[in-house]
Amino acid sequence: MNDSRTRILDAAEALFAETGYEATSTARIALAADVPKGLVFHYFPQKMDVLLTLIDERTEIEEPCEEPLPPDPAGALRRLAARLPLRASPSMRRILFREADTHRTARDRLTALNRELVRRARRTLELTLPGARGDAARLEIAAATFATVLLYQENLFHLTGDRIDPDALADLLTQALT
Amino acid sequence: MNDSRTRILDAAEALFAETGYEATSTARIALAADVPKGLVFHYFPQKMDVLLTLIDERTEIEEPCEEPLPPDPAGALRRLAARLPLRASPSMRRILFREADTHRTARDRLTALNRELVRRARRTLELTLPGARGDAARLEIAAATFATVLLYQENLFHLTGDRIDPDALADLLTQALT
Amino acid sequence: MNDSRTRILDAAEALFAETGYEATSTARIALAADVPKGLVFHYFPQKMDVLLTLIDERTEIEEPCEEPLPPDPAGALRRLAARLPLRASPSMRRILFREADTHRTARDRLTALNRELVRRARRTLELTLPGARGDAARLEIAAATFATVLLYQENLFHLTGDRIDPDALADLLTQALT
Amino acid sequence: MNDSRTRILDAAEALFAETGYEATSTARIALAADVPKGLVFHYFPQKMDVLLTLIDERTEIEEPCEEPLPPDPAGALRRLAARLPLRASPSMRRILFREADTHRTARDRLTALNRELVRRARRTLELTLPGARGDAARLEIAAATFATVLLYQENLFHLTGDRIDPDALADLLTQALT
DNA sequence: AATGAATGAGCGTTCATTCAT
DNA sequence: AATGAATGAACGCTCATTCAT
Prior knowledge:
The structure is a homotetramer.
Chain A lengths: L2 H17 L6 H8 L3 H7 L3 H12 L1 E2 L11 H10 L3 E2 L2 H11 L3 H25 L7 H25 L5 H12 L1
Antiparallel strand pairs in A: 1-2
Helix pairs in contact in A: 1-2, 1-4, 1-6, 2-3, 5-7, 5-9, 6-7, 7-8, 8-9
The structure holds a DNA duplex.
Protein name (chains A, B, C, D): HTH tetR-type domain-containing protein
Keywords (chains A, B, C, D): DNA-binding, Transcription, Transcription regulation
Organism (chains A, B, C, D): Actinocorallia libanotica
């Protein structure tokens, strides 16, 4: 069965997140996965394929679910934060951010994610704050700010040990727009 | 004179920014700097010393200058954004962000920058919005958000081509707190 | 049936001829033959067995046929050239020549071919030039030369695009001996 | 000094001749040369460069020396055989022949050599056998035959253990043309 | 007979680092 | 201070071969 393949991906995910793609050798991956070195290349002909497969199989941007929004804007934004449309472990997020700088596939995925996040935040605000629709520019800034903070949460936490509470940020931005 | 040393650092800065620290060999640095391979190790006994030296000599977090603040909060925040207290070339910024994830020195420098940014934003808001001092938590969120956006702006631009206008964000956050 | 076995040998023959035995992997053979990798080793327990089998089954040195010789020596030599007693495809000939340098089996086969060629040329000359039998040494040189040219013709053509016309060579050597 | 480089080339020459280029690992070369593995790549960035360098530096087609020819054609051909215009050890000749089949550089060198040999043999015969100049075709065959035998001497010897005496061949061909 | 996952030795190559000069 | 040959560990990857099914 695909036990070995999964173990290789698990090990790679952990090691890439911890030390980065370049600094992680295929031998270390095999060791951590407890498989022989050659097997890594049986499943992933090139080392890069391990990274691409991780991004492909372990980050997914969810379809927007169109269930009714909470009527209040802060509540709606809070729900967006809670259901960040990126199904990916913290490890995968770090990998995505780190490798986006040098690997197109990671960059493309991250770009798409950012775009989607902004789009949803904007839409949420438009629907729940009909009065603010007049000031499109302000609304856009708020959406982009919200997306940025959500996106870089993981990185920031790694830097400072602190997180910005998305709920509090949602409240703050809502207040700014009303 | 120290022409060679400077050329080595210049070359390393460009290469680290472009391909990352791990993927840049000392031989390539020497080649790009047009110095013999051995000379790199004359000035920097370990490859890591090149990175440390770059961070040490080419990124600097400015001392808080205590010149009088503009009286209005939005104006004061705007000035903070315009004078991001990080003296570093675009290349050095990319290096700092990229390597912060895996190299302590870069992380420490970036952590310090973030901390300083938050501190200044908080201080600015406290001084210009005396009425808001009562709600320390909200003020903190606003400061942290402002710092985060400033910090990751460069990254985001590299990803998406869009920037969040810091002035507009300053306005938005000010409004939220009043 | 033995469809797979034949396809493996066909693929190996083409690949060995094109890239050489050493530079052809069993995996490539399996791929070209459109059979699973494991099957190659089912039929040929070692990679070398593929080469040995090819030489064994696809090169054959013909038995000397003792049909009456043309009476004139040049005509007789010409017929020998026209019926080079090696039944083998162009691919197999290239394999034989190339691998003879390093693999005993190929060398043995090629040695046998050369010996047979010399033997026939000598015999032809002896029978058709009874007067020349006195000078065995010259006759031997002529026979060996004829054999060499026939043997390396293919190689030379591959190199230079030129062929030595065996008929003309037969004429020339005959004249030298009369 | 270049002691190591020479030892690497010496070792490679012997091993390539014995086992062929593909079947000779760089590790074996280093071992035989008694240098560390890494040094091979210091001098020859790619394994192929070892072969190319050998061909470049250790096979040389000499300029035709225009000293007066012996007046008799057989003597002149004999001298050509004795001074085969290829300065190359027996090892290098085997390498040249073997790798010519798959490596363009070796093929080009061998082609040039063959062409030059034929040219000289033709010229020698033309000068010493003015009467034969009328029959250019026969003269060409004789020259090509002589060149072929000289070229493949080494290979033939490896196959059969026998050599064709070039002097005797020179005599034979001369006789054929007179 | 047929399959493809598994194995580990070995390959060509890279590389940070050392060191004699 | 400056140089480039030397070094050997480690890298990504290939490969013939095995084996359970």
